[in-house]
Amino acid sequence: MAIDKEAELEELIRSAGSTEGQEEETDTAFDISTLLMVVRRSLPWMILLVLLGVTAAWLYLRYTQPIYQSSSTLKIDQKTQTAVLGLGAVGGAAEAQQNSKNLAGEVELIKSNIIYRKLQDSLNLNVGYFVEGTVLANELYTDTPFRVQYSTKDGFLFNKKIYINFIDEQHFLLLYRKNDVEQKVNGKINQTLNIEGSSISVYSTNKSPQAGVNYYFVIHDDATVWGYIGENLTVEIINPEANTIGISFKDHNPGKARDIVNKIDTLYLQEKLAKNSLATQQTLAFLEGQLDENRNKLQGAEVALQEFVRRNKTYDVKSDVANIAEKMAALQEERVELQRKAGALAEVASLVQQNRVLTREGETIEQSIPALTVLEDAQLSQQIALLNDQQADLNRVLESYKSTTTAVQIKQEQLDYTRRSIGRLLQQARQLLQSELAELDRQQREFESRLQLLPEKETELARLRRPFELYEKSYLMLMDKKVEFSIQKAGTTPDFQILSPASLPTAPISPIKIMVYAIGLAAGIGLGLGLVAVRFLLHNSVSSLRELESGSVAPVLGVVPSYDKEKLTVSKLIVDKNPKSAISEAIRSIRTNLEFLAPSRHKRLISITSTISGEGKTFVAVNLGGIIALSDQRVVIIDLDMRKPKVNLAFEAENTKGVSTILIERHTVQECIQRTSIPTLDFISAGPTPPNPSELILHPQFDRMLEELKQQYDVVIIDTPPVGLVTDGVLIMRKVDIPIYIVRAGYSKKTFLKNINKLVRGSGFTKLTTILNDAQSGGAYGYGYGYGYGYGTGYGYYEEEKAPKGLLARLRRRFS
Fold first, then answer.
1. 3-state SS string over 344-376?
2. Domain contains 645
3. Domain end call among 468, 494, 520
4. Is residue 812 situated within a structural domain?
5. Looking at the predicted structure, is the pLDDT value of residue 90 above 60?
6. Environment class of 711 (CB within 10 Å of its CB; exposed 0-12, middle 13-18, buried 19+)
7. Which of 539, 584, 536, 522 minimizes the C-alpha distance to 558?
8. Is there a contact between 581 and 800 (Cβ–Cβ < 8 Å)?
9. Residue 27, CB half-sphere, CA atoms under 13 Å: how many?
10. SS3 call for 237
11. Which of 68, 247, 270, 426 has the smallest count of CB within 10 Å of its CB?
């Protein structure tokens, strides 16, 4: 018989495994009811997260100093007015290109240490004045009741807080820390204090210090001030075509941000004007220096050239060569002329000596003697003509007289005298020609010597002319540049326009309250939705009747609400103590539903199991048995969970004997039956734990025990072991009339419902029903009563549990 039972169990398990692949999966569609349940349960946390987000935003705004930004716009341009002067544009397109501003260079100039240093000095940014608030410290800037002047050598006072407590309007106390030790120094207004080798003077302003206010000041070094300016200053090119630059500054004090931007604008304009003025002065100074130097050099070259001209009596050697050549040619011509005259004199002398002066009839003396024309001597021509006449007269006289006659002799004497006169004239002319020829020879030699010296003079003159021309050209060029620069200076004016000066910012750029609150609210809502999403995705337990119905094919027999009246360490019989409680009415509803499954006139065998331990099958078995017993039916509860017996604990009884001892035939059934507080309710405990519980259940003695109990009792309730841990309960469920499967809300996993579906579809447990245990009050609980008679018509028929007191408890009850 035991072998047949084992074969039946193996066949049951094999059939369940063979149908596992064909089992329909639990409905995986989006469960809106579960989502609403998760949202309802998470609503307090969502509200809390939203409140935390808004609170965090408020705290951020409370503990974050606002940042203000002030901005201005500069237009950098260059206007040329030379056309108005009628001089035209100096330099043309090249000058226009040169005058176009390199905006990137202007940006770097504004962000340079030149502007930083002047800004630091003009606004006295080295000293910051503050007042301590309850949360944050505020910079007073110009609204300070005191001013500080300092002088330090080693920088001990730099970048540290120095507190000043005003005792009265004239006396104060300075506090600072040295080596983590607080130091105190008493001081007086307008007097100098010596602190650690540094001097500090405190001066009052037109604002009186307030009593109880903690003032302090900080002396910053240059690096800190420049770093502060560079970190908060923004200079950017707005429109390159319009030559516009935007300057903005961020600070916690709006007035300080505005003053810094306006001061930067002013300092930049001053720096540009000073730079242009300095460039003009330097250019003019350079031109003047170059002009003076060139003037001196030009004067030296002029003196050297003048000395050359004075020494050589010439300024143009090449023209001197031509002049000398021309003069030598003229001398040559003159020599030829003199030689002709000498020839003419010789010819005349020969004619005079040969008495061949007589002219023929009709001829003049010049025609007879052509040489006289060359000589161009009127006296000689006259004497020769006289000689010619006297010769002719002598010849006529000789024709009539003899040569010894007085008349002839007188004529001869006259003729000789004239011939001698002509001879003297010819001699004089000859001497004159010789002297003229000698002079010509001298001049010829002089010109030749001068001509030989001309190349050396030409070289010297070229050497002297080169620096003269160079200095003269440079001097003229510098003069032109000076005039040109003066015209450009007079015609070009720098044009700097502040298109939009800095104004006092009224609203901070950071943090923006609306945005911060919106972020905090969005963060709270996002975290709340994230919490809902996480809880929904991680929600893998059965929490409501709807989930049980949608995930299981077995019908729901009823719902057992949570028992919150007392904390039960073990399962107990409570329906007899609270017959009108909600949980009693719920179990009565289950009892009523059992009537539809198995009428009370028949003997009923009921098994109660679950997937794992802790789902409340013992609690339901004990109290369901109690409710049925209270209806005047004889009920016995059998504890078959021999590994972890609990029924005896529910009735506070011993477990020395029971099912295990009955199956091994050590005790009889009657010996193991134990009574309870309800007369019609008995139970049999599991007995001592055997080493082989599964084999004992398969023993034929187990069937005989059930038959004996069915003969004695109307209802037999079997508390079986969890079917998810051992297979004992599966075989027991085959033997009963009504198998009940317990699912605990918020404890049983949704995957456990697959076990129920396997039992119904794969193993053929068509009568298997489920009970949702430990259901929270609300929709699931109320919905469960609709299955039975108890709650639907029992409003007011059971005792309401007292509502929890306190706001937190009421909220928990509201949103649970």
1. HHHHHHHHHHCCCCCCCCCCCHHHHCCHHHHHC
2. yes
3. 494
4. no
5. no
6. exposed
7. 584
8. no
9. 13
10. strand
11. 270
Residue 737 in tokens? 């009339």
Helix residue ranges, H only, 722-769: 728-735, 752-757
Alpha helix (H) residue ranges in 492-538: 513-537
Where among 247, 278, 309 does a domain terminate? 278
Residue 98: predicted pLDDT: 43
Q: In DSSP terms, which residues pair with 186 in a beta bridge?
A: 173
Amino acid at 485: F
Same domain, 643 and 688: yes
With both helix axes pointing from N to C terminus, report the angle between 582-597 and 617-629 in degrees, rounded to the nearest 10.
80
Mean pLDDT of 423-442: 82
Q: First CA to last CA across the chain, in angstroms?
A: 53
Beta strand extents in 267-383 (DSSP E only): none
Question: Do the beta carbons of residue 697 and residue 730 sit within 8 Å?
Answer: no
Compute the distance between CA of residue 24 and CA of residue 16 in angstroms, rounded to an integer: 13
> Can you tell me the distance from the alpha carbon of 632 to that of 638, in angstroms, rounded to the nearest whole number?
19
Confidence of residue 516 (pLDDT cuts 50, 70, 90): very high
Same domain, yes or no: 116 and 201: yes
Residues 524 and 637 in one domain: no
Say whether both 75 and 182 belong to one domain: yes
Per the listing, tokens 């130091």 go with 183
Q: What angle do CA 60, 65, 71 make, to 5 degrees?
A: 125
Sole residue written with tokens 């018509």: 793
Rg (Cα) of the chain, in Å, rounded?
Answer: 71
Calpha distance 442→450 (Å, rounded): 12
Chain segment 372-414, per-residue pLDDT in tens:
666 667 777 777 777 777 777 877 877 777 777 887 788 788 8
Residues 6+ apart with CB under 8 A from 758: 16, 19, 20, 23
Nearest-angstrom CA–CA distance, 232 and 116: 12
Q: Which of 170-179, 264-273, 393-402 has the lowest mean pLDDT?
A: 393-402
CB 554 within 8 A of CB 756: yes
- What span, in angstroms and rounded, lies between the C-alpha atoms of 9 and 4? 9
* Coil vs helix vs strand at 775: strand
Residue 432 maps to a domain? yes
Query: What is the C-alpha to C-alpha distance for residues 129 and 143, in angstroms, rounded to an integer?
Result: 9
Instruction: Read off the DSSP letter of residue 585.
Output: H
Helix 32-62 × helix 807-815 angle, to 10°? 140
Could you tell me whether strands 171-178 and 556-561 are parallel, antiparallel, or unpaired per DSSP bridges? unpaired
Q: State CA 505 to chain mean position distance.
A: 23
Q: What is residue 264's three-state secondary structure?
A: helix
Task: Give me the number of domains the chain comprises.
Answer: 4
Say if CB 474 and CB 466 are below 8 A apart. no
Beta-bridge mates of residue 251 = 68
DSSP summary character for residue 602? S
Between CA 219 and CA 233 the distance in angstroms is 21
Residues 550 and 661 occupy one common structural domain: yes
Report the sign of the C-alpha dihedral through residues 223, 225, 226, 232, in that order: positive
- Ramachandran region, residue 544 (left: φ > 0; alpha: ψ -120 to 50; beta: rest): beta
pLDDT digits (tens, 9 = 90+) for 60-80: 888 888 999 999 998 887 554
**Residue 291 falls within a domain, yes or no?**
no
Structural domain that includes position 131: 68-278
Q: How many CB atoms lie within 10 A of CB 750?
A: 19
Q: Identify whether residues 325 and 236 lie together within a single domain.
A: no
Say whether both 201 and 336 belong to one domain.
no
Supply 445's token pair. 């030699």
CATH of the domain at 545: 3.40.50.300
CA-wise closest residue to 742 among 614, 564, 562: 614
Dihedral over Cα of 796, 801, 806, 808: its sign? negative
In 3D space, the residue among 273, 308, 275, 645 whose CA is nearest the CA of residue 462 turns out to be: 308
Q: Which pLDDT tens digit goes with each residue over 473-501?
A: 887 887 887 777 776 666 555 566 888 89
Residues 224 and 166 in one domain: yes
Contact, 564 vs 809, CB < 8 A?
no
